[in-house]
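[step 3/7] fold_predict: job queued, chain A
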Amino acid sequence: MSTDSKRTDPARGPLFTKPFIVLLFLSLAGLFFIGVRFVKGIGAVSNLSDGYPWGIWVAYDVAIGTAVTCGGFAVALLSYLMHRGAYHSLVKSAILTSLFGAFLAASSIVVEIGRPWNAHGFFAPTSWQPNSAFFELTLCAAGYLVAEVIEYLPAIVPMLGRGNPTSLRTLLFNFLKARGMVRVSPESGAVPTGLLRCRINQLLILIALAGIVLPTMHQSALGSLMLIASTKLHPLWHGPFLPLLFLINCIYIGYAIVVFESILASFVQARPFRSADLAAAAALIPWLSGAWLVVRLGDLVNRGQIEAVFHGDFYSAFFLAECLLMTIGSAPLFNRRKRQSPRRLFISASMMLLGGGLYRFNVYLIGFNPGNGWHYFPSFAEVTISAGIVSLEILIYQVLIKLLPPIPAERAGY
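[step 4/7] structure written:
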């Protein structure tokens, strides 16, 4: 079998599996505690305080979740800017992963806001503070979410025209068909005509550019946000290069999540591995992580904090853990033969995700110390809400890949 990178099919297999039921249970548990949070207040479900105004909802769901969204950003760089259209087969699944990562971050922010009834101020320009890194982060992240939704719309076209004649998607199909924008294919359902394809492509060029520019802004803003922490953030993580480090970090995490998700999906669906395309994406990871380590260690030397790495305390242990995970995970990817192995790629991508995610977790939580008298450990409800949101994202992802075509289609090969 070979893979046709220009056409995609829904995934095979039953929807209601044992993992699906487990994820559904976790999702319902998370939704229950989210309901408690909005009825009784944030203090009823969290251990947040004035010293720790954010916990794992920001450190994990937002800081790490937004890095996962950069899969689409990273693949867009590879496929469009570097003129490597041969890797277009990775784009749809990367966009879908990015879309869910963006929803994960957005959902967590809504839950984490102490006074959600004031959130409407974000949509009022008179309330904006353009000098705020937090404002830049929120505005660009919201824009990136919209861009990812629009980029994925072409995958929904084949679903139009199916089902009840009065359904919304059928009405939309009839509207587009009357204007010559879609036609019916006995094999694929609704198919865009040349007119609609032209208009979609014109729009997607602009959206793809926005999808490349916006992450560079909100990822660097995530680093800028912690610059103001000053002495509250441990010297191993606080430094003037935080915005640059977060930007480089998100790019190699983006490639790692694309490799991880693609190999896992191919294994679960018993499909051929796209080794050539994945090897091309993975080839960039060691160079990016190497540049990140050079900037990271160079900054410590420049600030005279390199000896803190070897103190043997709680903080140095987490610092060494993140660096070792990234070094051990990325080093084998310099070898072309190892990049052709799905097993080696999966292990390396997993280690890069753990190491890159741990760095962000360290900056936003482990290395943060507001002073004596303040302590934080996530409550059971906080952990359940985070697990529930992630589980719900995975559930919806499973449903979409069963109904929509993010995975390259198989055709008879030679």
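[step 5/7] annotate
The chain has 14 helices and four strands.
The radius of gyration is 22 Å.
exit 0
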